[in-house]
Amino acid sequence: MKTALEKYILAAVTTNPAKVAGGTAVFIVKDKEEMDFFAKNLEAILDGIAHGIGEDLYIIVKH
User: I want to staple 39 with a disulfide (CB 3.0 to 4.6 A). Which of 4, 20, 58, 61 is the partner?
Assistant: First the structure.
């Protein structure tokens, strides 16, 4: 039986602050280009995977 948390959200990157709430690091950016840049870099830095959730939100998830 596994007891450790295996999957969790490391960060969120968005152009729309209304789409996110507390509970994780949130990066609010000005446009899609900056959102893509942040998601790509955070994916590498945090050793996670970036998932696009609509056109204005990425979540970085640890699998």
Answer: 58
Distance CA 34, CA 39 (A): 9
pLDDT tens, residue by residue, 16-31: 999 998 889 999 999 9
Instruction: Quickly tell me which residue has 């050793």 as its tokens.
Output: 47
Q: Give start and end residues of each alpha helix (H) in the chain.
A: 32-46
4, amino acid identity: A
Residues 30 and 9: their CA atoms lie apart, in Å, by: 22
Cβ atoms 25, 14 nearer than 8 A: no
